[in-house]
Predict the 3D structure of the following.
Amino acid sequence: MGVLQFVRRSFNPDEVAILGQAFDKACQELDDSVQPVSLEEIIAKRLIMIAARGETDPDRMCEAALVSVGLREPARNTGR
């Protein structure tokens, strides 16, 4: 079913496509071991929150969602 089963607000078709891309990318980047469905649900909900704040880049959305659930370290700003 993908990310759409968790959407509780309106997104236009372009936003839905971006959400789907970010969700698919995040799921592909999960550890190869079996992940609980609840983790996918949490990631989907985080992606929706990120999209609701106005983010439109699926790569940044994916990264932010994975960081938010502790599966990635936040990018460090090197100040360069």
Notes: The chain has a mean pLDDT of 83. Helices lie at 13-28, 37-52, 58-68.
